[in-house]
Design brief:
253 residues; alpha+beta; 12 helices
Length: 253
Amino acid sequence: MDRLAEAHSICILHAANPHLLVQGTAAVGGLPTSRFVFVRSIEHYLSLFPRDEQLEDEGIDPTDILGWDLRKALIATLQGDPTALEWLRIEPCDLSLPGFRDRFVDFALEHGDSVRFALSHLNRLMWFHRRYKGHPQGEMVPEKIIALLRPALSLRWYSQHKLEGLPPAQLRGLLDDVFIRPVLRGEIMELLDRQKNGELKDLEQIPPAIGELLLAEIEAGPALATRKKRPFTRHIMQEADRFFLKWAVAGKG
């Protein structure tokens, strides 16, 4: 991360390992992995032709390192994309500028829109809808099932919390905070154990209760889509500008 920061003249505000979102532990023997939010110099943002808002490691060694510019993270959050928020709420984190994570989450809670966040989770499920083949035990690549557990349980969390607040970012936190049937919890834990032990290739079908969860949240989608979204006001845009400028300066302090 230090090499990236120096090579691209950026300040990394926060970085964490995305493997912790699902398993709660880093992958053993995998590629160096990180997701981070960064800020460039103030002069960069005055350019008519700014550089990309996404940064990937271009080193010789294989890595899985991806970062978002603070501007991209803020705009995406206001538009309802929870990606940056998920990165920022991973525990433990690799590094974080003091106060940044809490202030970003507070900003999202105050000025973001739970309906848009929930719709983003729904879109992740809908992307793979054709793979379910219309019934709970349709075939799917096992890794894709695990990838869809967090958005499905996040939608269930929003339903149980009346679309208020933010669901836990990490799967273990969701399992602790969402009411689900014991059989579904058991299937999820077994699936995670299979992943940890390298046994996913032996799974041929979606476990029934997990398949029912995914389909139920997809079927609830039309009702969610009718919910009124929070409008983008001048006040929200001004607060986003203030937040950005504060941390753009703090990152160079």
